Every structure is written in structure tokens, then in C-alpha cells.
Give the backbone structure.
Amino acid sequence: MRLSRYFLPVLKENPADAQIASHRFMLRAGMIKQQQAGIYSWLPLGFRVLRKLENIVHEEQVRAGHIPMLMPTLQPADLWRESGRYDDYGEEMLRIKDRHGREMLYGPTNEEMITDIFRAHVNSYKDLPLTLYHIQWKFRDEIRPRFGVMRGREFFMKDGYNFDIDYEHAIHAYNRHMVSYLRTYERMGLQAIPMRADSGPIGGDDTHEFLVLAETGESEVFYDSAITDLKLGDRVIDYDDWDEVAGICREWTTPYARTDETHDEAVFAAEVPEERRRSARGIEVGQIFYFGTKYSEPMGAMVTTESGERVPVHMGSHGIGVSRLVGAIIEANHDENGIIWPEGVTPFHAGIVNLRQGDAATDAACEALYAGLKARGLEALYDDREERAGAKFATMDLIGLPWRITVGPRGLAKGVVELTSRRSGESEEMSAEAAIERLAEIYAPHRGTPVF
Ligand code: ATP
Ligand code: MG
């Protein structure tokens, strides 16, 4: 993408109403525009990141054997009356009437709708296990929308629902979700710690939240620092292997890690040596639940067992806050000059800065570099504007591409360009070909579905 033809409405000033780094940088980097409290347009740069996250979520869900689909944002109130949640959900639910006076709502989550789909089409244990998911906009009329996309009213969420014949199968589905979520966050360059949690309005007994550590997090968390050493890396996981999947979950849930809702100081002190006890702030980026027959029973989602019995299906639901993650990643990856994207989620792989726009040789070198990166499947943002070098560098630092290639007449005379890491600030001179090769190597482990 050439910056001269892109839409990147960068702000020079710090927006007054943005209290935290991610909100400030998302506005300044031209990623989002607020349209109403808690409701945002995703401008092109922000949209690219959102799509990258969405792709990673899809890839990891499909890898775990879960099936993508899409449900609507608007739901009929009657479905929610069946589960009893229409009255319980309260002011957070946006209730709407259509021209015929029919009551509808903008979905805050989809347990009722997916249960309705299931009961319409599935009858037998032979069709189980089944896990369906979608990534769709949700609306919750939060009393205090704040921190930009972190606590919005309209937000983008992956929600998945498992249907299983009994408790044991449902717990395997729960474990599968935990492991696929750990992989998902790791690919996004995040460490998200599974923590025992309270179930809230979804209901149920078994539930974990995934928290990213960050000073601006809304939750208080307590954990054994040993958990921060765990990594899945490129471990190959057989999601059909119950023991393997349960083993990974055990590994990640054995060290103490709880939010303030479930924290128990006595257990913390007894289980964790003092030098490993940590308390910090965390951002909730996902939650998984097993809730058994809470929805299937009242809504009549029944299956016939092998012995011919009719039983309500065991369910769980599993959410990832895709739009919140954009903010969470920035909270965990920035400095005073702007964002520092992890390689797995960066909107562009590299930025090209032309130090002498209009100089024929420099322009030609930049064009060749741009084409060379593209040929290797790497997306570059080429700053081809007639701007001072300082302004170009400031824009690149603000939008946070992990790698910048600087091209100028002085380097070209020596046959080199400069490759700079946004994270370390370190630069290295090398030929343009070597820079392309280096980036191809760096991004090899981060190859997902191309975004656009
Ligand atoms: P919170 O406690 O932060 O209000 P929640 O527990 O009510 O969230 P869930 O029902 O667990 O939310 O939804 C799954 C995920 O969706 C959450 O883990 C979070 O990442 C995301 N999410 C929930 N509410 C919002 C919101 N208002 N804005 C952005 N993301 C949200
Ligand atoms: Mg939650």
C-alpha cells in the first residue's frame, strides 16, 4: 500500500478524552473513529488489525475441530423468554421493536439462538459431538463504556457453543477450547493466563477467564509467577486426544491464578511460595463456560442416546473478545511514541520510508523494494509522501509496524538500505535483497490467511 493513496488520518494532538494508551494510540494512528459512546468505525488501519485477529481466531478454531457459521445480530425476544433470560438480562440488553410491534433485541450473546438451531436439526447422539461458532458484532448497553474498544457497547466477539452427550464429552470440549484459546493468544503475541472465574449471567459451574496482564486492566488478579513461563510454542496438538488436551489444561491451571472474584488469600499463601506470589491488573480477553443443561432443558434441545433414551444435551459457551483484543495488544505492546505490533497481528509487515521523495534513483529503489516484498508475500506500507524524514519516522513509530526499511541516497551510494526494529530501535545496514530475505525469515512462523 502506498501511503499517498491510503486513508490514514493520523492525529497530531492527544485526544483529550482518551485515558489509556491503547485508546489514545488507536485514535491518533487513525485506526478508529468514535461515532457514539462505545460505538466505533474501524478505519482502514484498524480494520486490517481486526481482520488479522479474526483470521487467527478462525484458523485456531477450525484446527480444534470447531465449525464456523454466522448468526444474525438481531434476535426475537421470544427465544429469550424461553430460557428465562429476557427479563433477567436487564438494562444491558438493547431492546427494539419492528414496524409490526414485534419485540426484538440486538444480541449480547447467542446461547438461545444456537440452542434453537440445534433443536431444529439435531436429534441423535450420532450427530454429536458438535461445536459451532461465529464471529459477529454484539451489543451490550454498558453503563460506562470506556477505554475505546476495550469496553465498547457494540463489539466484535467470537462465541462458540459445544453440544455433547454427557458431562465427560462436554469437559473434553471445554478443554479443547482452553487449549485452542491459549494457542490463539500466543499467536497474537500475548500471554493470556487462564484464571478460575465466576460464571455471571451465562450461568454454570466450570469457567475460566483469560487475562492479559496490563496496568490498565479492569480486573485485579493474583497468580503464581511460574505460570508466566509456560508456552505452547509450535507443539503439535491432537485435539481428539482427550488425555493430551486435558494434560495441557492441567499444566496451565495447576499454578494458582485467580481474579479478585474467586481469590482466596489463605489458599494463595498455602500453595505459592512467597517469592512467586504476584498481584497485578488484567484485561479479560476471553472466557469459557461449561453449563450443562441450563439452556437445553428449558428449550427442549434433546437427543436420543444409544439406549433410546431422550436426554437434554450438555452445552458450554466460549467467547473471545476480538475487538477488545486490539486494545489489549496495544496495552501490552507500546512505548511513549506509539504502538509496537507483534509480528503475528501487525497491519503491515514493514514500512518503507523514502528519505528523498522525487529523487529518481531513490524512488526506483523504493519501488523495487516494495515489489520485492510483495513477491515474497509481505505487505509493505510505503511512505511515498513529500514529507520530512522526521515526520515519516514519527508516523511509522506511531502506527507501530515492527520493521521499517529506510531508503536514502547516501545508503544507496553504498548499496544499502537500513532495517530498523520498532521494538529494540536497533538498525542494521544491508542490501535491499538481504532486507527482504531477513523479513521473509522473520515472518515465516507468522504466515496466516492473507487479509486483503
Ligand atoms: P466483562 O466482565 O469485561 O464485562 P463479560 O464477562 O461480561 O466481560 P463475556 O460474556 O465473557 O464478557 O464475553 C466474552 C468476551 O467478550 C469477554 O471476555 C471480553 O473479552 C469481550 N467483551 C465483553 N464485553 C465487552 C465489551 N463491552 N466491549 C468489548 N469486549 C467485550
Ligand atoms: Mg466474561
Q: What stands out?
A: The longest helix spans residues 167-187. Residues 209, 284, 287 surround magnesium ion (ligand 2) (CB under 6 Å). The chain has 14 helices and 23 strands. The longest strand covers residues 277-292.
